[in-house]
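Narrative of activities, Objective 1.

The group set out to show that a structural description can be obtained from nothing but a protein's sequence at a throughput compatible with the screening campaign. Below is one input-output pair from the validation batch, recorded exactly as produced.
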Amino acid sequence: AEKWSFLFHSPQANKSYKVDVKDSKIDQTTEVAPSFTDAVDGDFIDSAEAMAEAKKKGLKGKKRAMMTLHAMLQGTKSQGAYWNIVSDQAEGRSTLIKAETGKFFRHQPLK
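Output recorded for this entry:
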């Protein structure tokens, strides 16, 4: 990936930061609202593996896709970490890959 963005949260300080990394260096650090406070288990597949699985399941579009690692926790029967891949917004959907197993979960309409 050309650029990575990470979200960090400190419960003690009640602060959250978005850190952008480009060319293996911190490009920008921004304080953000503490909306993502649940920890993500560190046991998940690499983004390249998630992309390969998404392509097997019909992902089309640009070579460089926007990818985010999400943790679905409260209010869902499908709790866990997922890679959310959007390759082409004209396609009108994103592809969710289970981050722990690397297996396809579902296509999801973009809203």
